[in-house]
């Protein structure tokens, strides 16, 4: 009986390991901590610089931006992404971005990054920002204007 339990335990361990290898193989590799943070910071940098082409280069196919609050409030996708970021950068100019409270959660399916970002320029714009990356590209984001943000 003891031998049978050891055999079952070894078989389960081997099966779990094989399934893990299959998952890695199917997804093209594991998501590594830091990849999402790097991509998020590059996207935020492009926004601060007013670099619309750089902003748009971050996006994957079918990307969606949920802008919550302010004059650009709404859901933007497709050509609407270029329109909204062109309007924003034209109105705001070059900004300084301070990022705090950044948090990254990753698994083989994707990486979610959230942060408190304060953009400073002509106006101070506190934003709670959530970005979802799949395959290294930004596919969904929430830009929440957060006037009551007390810390970043």
Q: Notable features of this structure?
A:
globular, alpha+beta, 40% helix, 2 domains, Nuclear Transport Factor 2, Chain: A, 6-stranded mixed β-sheet, 38% strand, 152 residues
Distance between the termini: 59 Å
Sheet/helix structural class: alpha+beta
In CATH's first tier, which class of the largest domain applies? Alpha Beta
Shape designation: globular
CATH fold node name of the largest domain? Nuclear Transport Factor 2, Chain: A
The percent range for helix content is 40-55%
* DSSP summary: helix tally: 4
Total count of domains: 2
Largest sheet: 6 strands, mixed
Uncertain regions spanning at least 5 consecutive residues: 6-31
Number of strands: 6
CATH architecture verdict of the largest domain? Roll
Q: Output the strand order for the largest sheet.
A: 2-1-6-5-4-3
Mean pLDDT: 84
Question: For the CA atoms, what is the radius of gyration?
Answer: 20 Å
The share of residues in extended strands comes to 35-45%
Q: How do the helices and strands follow one another from N- to C-terminus? A: HHHEEHEEEE
Task: Write up this protein.
With 152 residues, the chain is of the alpha+beta class. The chain has two domains: 30 residues; 111 residues, Nuclear Transport Factor 2, Chain: A (Roll). Helix content is 40%, strand content 38%. It contains four helices and six strands. The chain has a six-stranded mixed β-sheet. It is globular, with a radius of gyration of 20 Å. 21% of the residues are buried. About 17% of the residues have low confidence.
């Amino acid at each position: 009986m003891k031998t049978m339990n050891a055999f079952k335990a070894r078989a389960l361990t081997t099966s779990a390991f094989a399934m893990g290898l299959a998952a890695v193989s199917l997804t093209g590799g594991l998501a590594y901590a830091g990849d999402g943070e790097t991509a998020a910071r590059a996207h935020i940098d492009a926004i601060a610089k007013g670099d619309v082409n750089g902003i748009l280069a971050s996006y994957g196919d079918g990307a969606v931006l949920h802008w919550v609050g302010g004059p650009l409030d709404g859901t933007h996708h497709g050509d609407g992404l270029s329109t909204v970021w062109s309007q924003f950068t034209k109105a705001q100019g070059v900004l300084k971005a301070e990022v705090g409270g950044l948090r990254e959660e990753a698994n083989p399916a994707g990486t979610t990054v959230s942060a408190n970002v304060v953009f400073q320029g002509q106006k101070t714009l506190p934003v709670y920002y959530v970005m979802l990356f799949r395959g290294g590209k930004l596919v969904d984001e929430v830009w929440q204007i957060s006037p009551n943000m007390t810390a970043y």
